[in-house]
């Protein structure tokens, strides 16, 4: 790790290209702040990475809200740079090749980016560094995505943390103002970006030129870009004090809805931490305020990022290897059940409403992510990796570390996961967290005629009563595809077969 002064020295008087990836903003940006503070010329680039885009297209994701979100942010940044007398250099292709080519043509001394902790991104950055080295150009990656990264917090025995509570304690104890201070990009009152020569500028490809179609992103009303993120954060701050008591109810405006902005960096995590701290009088004092609880969620994000960094194998296997001995259901019936889960037709209203939410908006409330994940794994007995992959395709805020962490937590295969014998009952979860059935009615309108007591488990009502309320089970709405009590017993048997883990995973709980 380099110290701030070393980074500034390394950049002093140099021509620098800042490569934007999942940090699509011009404010509070570590690489830009360093570059603008020390370099003699600063160019900014973005590459529409064909490797990533083609993988999406190969999975049939031609209408992908994330690509549209990124496209909007890229256009916004280009406009802001144009207003500052510069332009965004946009390319499409293999990212390492495009960056090396651009850096060579610009004649820069160094390419600056932010560190990424996903295995594919690490490989991409290594390849970029190699190509640049061949041209005698440096590559420097800085921390920006998280507050504390991989190696910064260690247990007393030198391990990485695999249990959240001590990690959170260590995170809070280590936190200093420098960790969340704004990385100012206009410290001298202006942004001194260099203007690329006209022959280096290429028009930003349209969505269709990239091979994609527009989605319902704008119709969803999600504020876009850096400006949208700032508005959303300001609005959330007016209700952050209620976060703790409201965050678990999907029909209530409880959470921040900022995850997609954090994912693509239209907002910095430091800005979010500063927002939380504005509402916490004394960080060292005990207590559970809304802002404290929200800050803990941001710490979960760092926690999972460091798990992925230290255990990249979790992308394909269980954090606790013994759990890979579980015999998940396979075959035609399991495949049919998976499809019914994915399309929101399981006959469990809360699960169906949640799956319809993710399919139609790309967002799913955190409580519902836990309920639907638990249902797939512990009611349907299907491998968590299949659900993880489905969420990866659908979520606007899809983040490998958090998604994997969330799925392994729900499946009880992960670090600090819930015990395998804790199995969510989808009906009692529904009664508890959507007591009036308001969320269900929003996404499962065919059950709108049922009252608050009936809507969570319509099969418990007599046929005539259901019909009086416009519901014919098996016709207008499905019968439950599994019986929860039977499934629960099968799951307990399935997990009980897991042999005792004789070789605890590296970084086992301290
Ligand atoms: C099965 C499953 C899959 C998930 N997949 C993702 C994913 O792909 N991307 C993602 O960002 N989050 C994921 N989460 C975590 C969480 O559900 C979302 O971060 C949250 O719902 C986003 O909404 P929000 O911004 O309104 O959250 P808020 O409640 O406002 O939380 C603020 C921020 O804290 C972070 N955060 C909150 N909860 C968690 C958590 N449990 N783990 C890690 N970070 C958290 C997020 O960055 C979030 O934006 C997953 C959770 C589960 C159970």
**Can you identify the CATH class of the largest domain?**
Mainly Alpha
Radius of gyration: 24 Å
Helical fraction: 40-55%
Strand content: 5-15%
Bound ligands, each once: flavin-adenine dinucleotide
Q: Which consecutive residue ranges, at least 5 long each, have pLDDT under 50?
A: 501-510
| N- and C-termini, Cα separation | 26 Å
Counted by DSSP, the helix tally is: 22
- CATH fold description of the largest domain: DNA Cyclobutane Dipyrimidine Photolyase, subunit A, domain 3
| SS-derived structural category | alpha/beta
Q: Which CATH architecture of the largest domain?
A: Orthogonal Bundle
For the largest sheet, list the strands in their spatial order.
3-2-1-4-5
CATH superfamily of the largest domain: DNA Cyclobutane Dipyrimidine Photolyase, subunit A, domain 3
| SS elements, strand count | 5
Q: What does the average pLDDT come to?
A: 94
* Sheet having the most strands: 5 strands, parallel
Q: What order do the SSEs take from the amino end to the carboxyl end, as H and E?
A: HEHEHHEHEHEHHHHHHHHHHHHHHHH
Count of discrete structural domains:
3
What's the arrangement of secondary structure elements?
Layout: H1 4-11, E1 15-20, H2 30-38, E2 41-49, H3 50-58, H4 65-83, E3 88-93, H5 95-106, E4 110-114, H6 119-134, E5 138-142, H7 164-174, H8 177-180, H9 225-237, H10 243-246, H11 259-264, H12 269-278, H13 290-310, H14 332-343, H15 349-361, H16 366-379, H17 384-394, H18 400-410, H19 426-433, H20 438-443, H21 463-468, H22 484-496
Parallel strand pairs: 1-2, 1-4, 2-3, 4-5
The structure holds flavin-adenine dinucleotide.
């Amino acid at each position: 790790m380099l110290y701030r002064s070393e980074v500034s020295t390394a950049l002093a008087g140099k021509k620098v290209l800042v490569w934007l990836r999942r940090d699509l903003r011009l404010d509070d940006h570590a690489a830009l702040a360093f570059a603008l503070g020390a370099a003699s010329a600063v160019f900014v680039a973005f590459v529409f990475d064909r490797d990533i885009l083609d993988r999406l297209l190969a999975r049939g994701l031609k209408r992908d809200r994330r690509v549209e979100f990124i496209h909007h942010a890229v256009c916004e940044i280009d406009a802001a740079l144009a207003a500052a007398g510069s332009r965004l250099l946009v390319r499409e292709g293999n990212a390492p090749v495009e960056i090396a080519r651009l850096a060579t043509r610009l004649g820069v001394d160094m390419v600056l980016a932010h560190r990424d902790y996903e295995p594919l991104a690490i490989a991409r950055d290594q390849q970029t560094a190699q190509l640049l080295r061949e041209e005698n150009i440096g590559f420097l990656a800085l921390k920006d995505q998280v507050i504390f990264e991989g190696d910064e917090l260690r247990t007393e025995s030198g391990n990485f943390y695999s249990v959240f509570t001590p990690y959170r304690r260590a995170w809070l104890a280590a936190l200093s103002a420098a960790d969340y201070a704004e990385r100012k990009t206009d410290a001298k009152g202006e942004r001194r970006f260099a203007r690329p020569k006209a022959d280096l500028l290429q028009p930003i490809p349209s969505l269709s030129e990239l091979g994609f179609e527009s989605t319902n992103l704008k119709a969803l009303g999600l504020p876009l870009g850096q400006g949208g993120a700032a508005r959303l954060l300001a609005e959330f701050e007016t209700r952050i004090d209620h976060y703790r008591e409201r965050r678990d109810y999907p029909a209530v405006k409880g959470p921040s809805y900022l995850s997609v902005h954090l994912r693509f960096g239209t907002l910095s995590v430091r800005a979010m931490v500063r927002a939380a701290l504005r509402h916490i009088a004394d960080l060292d004092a005990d207590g559970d305020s809304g802002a404290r609880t929200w800050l803990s969620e941001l710490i979960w994000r760092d926690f999972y990022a460091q798990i992925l960094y230290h255990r990249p194998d979790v992308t394909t296997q269980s954090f606790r290897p013994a759990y890979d001995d579980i015999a998940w259901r396979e075959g035609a019936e399991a495949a049919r059940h998976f499809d019914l889960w994915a399309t929101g037709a399981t006959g469990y209203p809360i699960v169906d409403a949640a799956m319809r939410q993710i399919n139609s908006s790309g967002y799913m409330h955190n409580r519902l992510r836990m309920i639907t994940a638990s249902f797939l794994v512990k009611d349907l007995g299907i491998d968590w990796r299949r659900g993880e992959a489905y969420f990866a395709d659908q979520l606007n805020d899809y983040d490998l570390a958090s998604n994997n962490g969330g799925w392994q937590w729900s499946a009880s295969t992960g670090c600090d996961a819930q015990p395998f014998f804790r199995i969510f009952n989808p009906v009692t979860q529904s009664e508890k967290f959507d007591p009036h059935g308001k969320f269900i009615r929003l996404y499962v309108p065919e059950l709108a005629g049922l009252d608050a007591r009936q809507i969570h488990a319509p099969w418990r009502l007599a046929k005539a009563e259901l019909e009086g309320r416009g519901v014919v089970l098996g016709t207008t709405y499905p019968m439950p595809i599994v019986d929860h009590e039977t499934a629960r017993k099968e799951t307990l048997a399935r997990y009980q077969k897991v042999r005792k883990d004789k070789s605890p995973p590296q970084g086992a709980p301290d």
